[in-house]
Amino acid sequence: MAYKKGPGHRHHALALENIGKDDPTPLPTMDYGNYNQSIALLVLNASIIEGLVRSVLSQSIFDDYDKQVKKEVEEGRDSPSKPQLMLQKFQSEVEIQGGWEKLKEQFLFYFDVSIDKMLSEDVKESINALFVLRNVFAHGTAIVHPKEPMDETMKTEYPYSWYRRLQRARVYLKKHFGHDDIFENLAEYAVPEHFLGATKLFFDALEKEFGELPSRASDVISKLRDYSFGYISLSR
Fold it and tell me: Alpha-carbon distance 87 to 75, whole Å?
């Protein structure tokens, strides 16, 4: 699948380390009551990203499928060719098979673009941490830290992959919110706005890579640029 690399879009003005720093909320900023808003907003945020990326991929496949059908009709074919059937099958897989990691694999396969490599290191870590948290909240995945570190020799053990991803999310949250405990970081009032800021930077990178996106995706990004999850200070 070939695509036209875009000239780039304006970079979002926000830097992840500055999101929320100009808010006048006094300390303490941590309150477990923030879970009432933050959990739902984090799940919503991840759904926005996954839905938009899936929309871009699905629309591109459909456009290529439509071109292939028209080409075959013009050639006088009376039955679908293998390329047509393969496009149809792949589009069905994209729309049915869930999961952020699977979607990234499909995106790489079709566009030859790695979403992780498309992003700056901090934005990549932010988005990956967001989806780890989404899995915890949406699917009831347990937050389990083994008592002993799991090294490379334990790759075949069931908890290894999850442990590594959760550990990276914990390190990311500590870097930006300062707590060793993952639950304390999630109780910070600025968490939802922080990840929404990362989402805007993610979409900037997507537009820079592709230039022109399908209209539905462009409309969502345009509306999201001026959107905010805001802050709620329970300590006031």
Answer: 18
Q: pTM of the prediction?
A: 0.80
Query: What Å distances lie between residue 144 and 46, 57, 160, 165, 168, CA to CA?
Result: 22, 34, 11, 11, 13
pLDDT at 11: 38
Whole-number CA gyration radius for the chain: 21
The pLDDT of residue 234: 58
Distance between CA atoms of residues 183 and 190, nearest Å: 14
Compute CA 85 distance to the chain's CA centroid, rounded to the nearest angstrom.
29
List of long-range contacts for 81-86, beta carbons under 8 Å, 24+ apart = none
Helix (H, G, I), strand (E, B) or coil at 96: helix
- Structural contact between residues 19 and 197, judged by C-beta atoms closer than 8 angstroms: yes
The answer to whether the beta carbons of residues 227 and 23 sit under 8 Å apart is no
pLDDT, one tens digit per residue, over 59-101 is 999 998 898 889 888 888 888 888 888 988 998 899 887 789 9
